[in-house]
Amino acid sequence: MHSASEQSEAAEPPAPPEHAYPDHWEADVVLRDGGTARVRPITTDDADRLVSFYEQVSDESKYYRFFAPYPRLSAKDVHRFTHHDFVDRVGLAATVGGEFIATVRYDRIDARGLPASAPADEAEVAFLVQDAHQGRGVASALLEHIAAVARERGIRRFAAEVLPANSKMIKVFTDAGYTQKRSFEDGSVRLHLDLEPTDRSLAVQRAREQRAEARSVQRLLTPGSVAVVGAGRAPGGVGRTVLRNLLGAGFTGRVYAVNAALTEETELDGVPALPSVAAIGAPVDLAVVAVPAERVPEAVADCGEHGVRGLVVLSAGYAESGAAGRERQRALVRQARSYGMRIIGPNAFGIINTAADVRLNASLAPQMPAAGRIGLFTQSGAIGIALLAGLHRRGAGLSSFISAGNRADVSGNDFLQHWYDDPGTDVVLLYLESIGNPRKFTRLARRTAAVKPVVVVKGARHSGSAPPGHRVPVTRIPHATVSALLRQAGVIRVDTVTELVDAGLLLAAQPLPTGPRVAILGNSESLGLLTYDACLTEGLRPLRPLDLTTAAVPADFRDALAAALADETSDAVVVTAIPWVGEDGATEFGDGEVLAAALREAVASAPAPAKPVVVVHVEMGGLAEALAVATSTRPAAERGAVTPENRSGDTPKDPTDRPHPIPAATPAPAPPAPAPQAAVPDAQATLPETQATLPAYPAAERAVRALAEAVRYGQWRRQAAEPGRVPEYEDIDEAGAAALISDVLAGDHVDAGGVTLDTERAGALLARYGITALPTLPAPTPDAAVAAARRLGYPVALKTTAPHLRHRPDLGGVRLDLASEGQLRTAYAEITEVLGKPEELQPVVQAMVPRGVDTVVRAAIDPAVGAVLSFGLSGAASELLGDTAHRLVPATDRDAAELIRSLRTAPLLFGWRGSAPVDTPALEELLLRVSRLVDDHPEVVAVSLEPVVVAPRGLSVLGATVRLAPPAPRTDLGPRSLPRY
After folding, report:
1. Is residue 34 within 8 Å of 210, Cβ to Cβ?
2. Which of 91, 124, 694, 749 has a 20 to 30 Å separation from 188 between CA atoms?
3. Which of 298, 329, 341, 415 has the alpha carbon at shortest distance from 37?
């Protein structure tokens, strides 16, 4: 790619003074093949690296770059390409192992194409990618980063000249999604790109991010070879345990043991054992590192220098251990990324992939889980052990398992990218103690939840700080607010690991309910009533329980369940069962196996569409085991579930497509001394098609809670197909608001914490977005109050604005409907006599507005979550009950409608006890306008409208507070990059 400015060195103006090295431009990126590279500015110290890089580029690539044979760089070229002012001339390099693999540079130019300085806002851009690294998406990643740098430096357009034969580079530009123009001049293609991000460029960027991060996880889960670094010669120890677990699971690839104490090649557990990865002499895809923390850097260097793609670091002694450990963790991540490797851990428990063609157990779990349709991610090894045991005990199989420990690099976000389109995973279960990038997590969770359930339990939710070892922003918003925002994104939010297993079991084995109507049947009237009450508590609509009486036999259960499944008045069925003891004291259900067979038979013969069935049992020996041998091993598409390729969510019409999960046999315990590299018989011995897995629960409340989560999730997914829109309002003056904000923030009185606008400026800013705040006039004296009332017109309200009395009419600081001067003076005297002096109370006068319901509208920027829109009714009762609803910004019209209706006190807005319904459409519009204001201007860090009186016709904003601050950088809108260390 040729740069026109390179023809004009003689015309180049004197070099401007160099600026400080911009270290915030440094970033680690995930490339298309799942490897990583470091992007950083090129400096004067890079001359030798540049020459070495150029020598490894083919003659053809050099020709495409310079439009002529250019076998080597001259000293003048090297100087030019390594000396930048970081404003008008910028060069970036992508590096792996400290060496250049690609470069990009821009030179600011004027309208004639000659070198220039600001205010010129166009730059010539040129790339060069080493041939060995072409096709990895390096140029696309560099374009994102150089475009972000250019925008920061006031450049709005890129120009590029490309030879027609250089189709790869033309494709990099045309596929980027920027607004562009293309022309053909003098035998070359001339491209002009507007650098303002567009919806398409953002969509392209996120699609590339998903493919790259999913691929990086796939490389970790599907290695062709694994080296266990730190496998001890004596039995026991972490490394030797992982080695035995790998072999015991029947890993289908090659396994090596590495122990630095060895002096020559030998064997451990029948596999080659060597002193280093370098000594292996064959490719190694994944290394499990189990050496003391002080020896990890040596092991990482050994792995990186010999092409290992990823690491699972089990070693402890990192950020969980204090300040020194945190620095050790940062160094670990930086070192691994410098070699293009990704890390699970440190302080990890390990990873598992149950796919038959992989069978990877690179973890401390002694037994390989059964294969299934659940993906499980946990940040805690102890919780991971508990979840594996709980799922195994209840017959739930896994597609993959990850316990990431301190998750310094690979996180739950990366695995959401992988599971989103993983055909082997139908349900995602996450145990999280922290969320490193909440904006990104919410975005990924929403997208994944649109095609498969995402169930989350959040630990450390009340601690107010990040768990040891986790480097994350700490949210200031309450736990209930975080839960509400996750639910908005379609996440099934549960409180305990037991509920996590309960929900996952149902979602993996049963179809989603199409509504909240629940049929209840069983042989215990009392248990049926408990189930009925539990349904009402969870907001479901239970039908009258069908009591089969204690005389019921399995055939009666079968017939009743078949009838309930065929009945169009129900959307789900709960079967309740207790033991029935005959006159001779014998249990008639054969320890539950006969009843389980009868229930499966009824499900197998039911007509489409399928309904979920859950079973509640009390002391039914063997029933749970018989019902839940293991979850299905059939793909979601074969069970009628929505996949990325089938996103409509329509229930299959063909009865043959109805979900029939195939349970697998419970896996046998791992043998005490597995034969090395031996093939392991397939543990997926399937039962007949009719033996559908039915989730069983020992308590009605647990079964109904899991069912209720499935109902709510099904409703969310149906609504997600039409997510609403962010309305456009013609009267919004975005430019005028931006100018006002800039003027305020440019003032000398603004510190880093921001500034609260005075009443006049707050009203002016809100007016730019079509929001009218009722004026208030100060009343420091009775005469001033009377003058204000004459200006506004009677009747008026007299209010105190002191912080301890603000919005507290119950304390007597508000007097309404003052229709005359006499009433106003009397009210003024009473307030000041009872509550304090005027200078303490800060009284104001305001015109009266039509009566209605007092509400509160707020928006605020949380450092972890982003912009949040909140709504509630005004008053102490709502505050005490925490009856406030929340949505992420930007809110859609559907979000606004749901926000209003999700309050427990919402009936007060819709005519409760004969009162007049208020103007909720006007309230929804106000919410949307506030959302637009905060979304359009990140400098608006807080807005509070209180009270907002909503009348039967229209509404009035009686109080408004707006706070501005310099915006924090948005990590979700810039170029793709991994979290910085």
Report:
1. no
2. 91
3. 341
